[in-house]
Amino acid sequence: MEIEKIKKQFKKDLESIKDIEKIRIRYLGKKGEIAWAFKQLKSFSLTAKKKIGPELNNLKREIEDLLEKRLKGRSNQQQFSPLYKSLPGKKPEIGHLHITTQAIREIVNVFKPLGFNRVRYNEVEWDYFAFESLNMPKEHPARDEWETFFIQDLSNPKKGKAVITPHTSSGQVREMLKGELPIRMLNLSRCGRREININHIPSFYQFEGLVIDKGINITHLRGLLDYFAQNFFGPGRKTRIRPFHFKFTEPSFEIDINCDLCLGKGCRFCKSGWVELGGAGMVHPNVLKFGKIDPCKYTGFAFGWGVERTYMMKSGTKINDIRHLFSNDFRFLEQF
Ligand code: FA5
Q1: Which CATH number fits domain 99-333: 3.90.180.10, 3.30.565.10, 3.50.30.50, 3.30.930.10?
Q2: pLDDT level of residue 208 (50, 70, 90 thresholds)
Q3: Is it the case that residue 80 has pLDDT exceeding 70?
Q4: Which parts of the chain fold into alpha helices (H)?
């Protein structure tokens, strides 16, 4: 009887076969190798039986011991495998805030120390607050610049049609009508306009500053805009103000920054080396009157900037198309 052969084969199987139960059945099962050897033994002479019988019993015990050890080893490994300190850990994927939300938080943090009161006025607004109370009577051609979305079948006899607010300036008179003076408002909200291209999107955010008090003049406005630019964009950036015309401010300006994409040389995004960020000016006396504020006693300034463009022009962001911000493309979003 080839006991040594069975032993050798068993050790080989133990190394190569993962399923321990399969090996147990093959060697210790009713029709297994050991049972078959014992059957063979019956036909052997008495002397041979006395010699081979104990050897076979020893082999059976040895196989049982080795299988038991292997089983124990497995369960120990399963128990302790999470503690293998040399294995690199699996990091759970953690998301982050969208760029626009990050920009909103950064902008608010610049104005907070100056005592601005953060508000968020209506995204769906009456024509009255979006235009009429801002010195733009019905049918005035200046309204066309705002590419407005009108909401069908929703209107108010006194306040006109409902619109998706085209700018945060519609919060100006609402804030004045609260009747609390002086005012330092920061209205940061979503706006809508019918336009889409490299630097316009139909749904975007603006932040609107409104300061009204006795003795407010244009130097306060210029000082505040410089303060924002220095604190938000980083050192070494150039801003400029250009005379402009808004019906609700007099005088009025537009504010530009040197383009961060081409560093002022002129590119596909800015064309001229400058990027328009927003408008500003001294609040028109008619608007103060709509807000029930006496223009002989109080003066004020206002400014309204686009959040997305402002963030795009922050040093180093290098976003060359505003539409990326709405693309929901992870390859882009993960970079910020
Ligand atoms: C206005 O909306 C005025 N309400 C700003 C203002 C406020 C003037 C207070 C005076 C006093 P304008 O239409 O230029 O102005 O828009 C201001 C800024 O909003 C733009 O410079 C731009 O940064 C951003 N903006 C406007 N339209 C879009 C758009 N479709 N997509 C992205 N950003 C836009």
Answers
A1: 3.30.930.10
A2: very high
A3: no
A4: 3-16, 20-28, 33-41, 46-80, 99-111, 127-130, 171-176, 218-233, 285-290, 307-312, 330-333
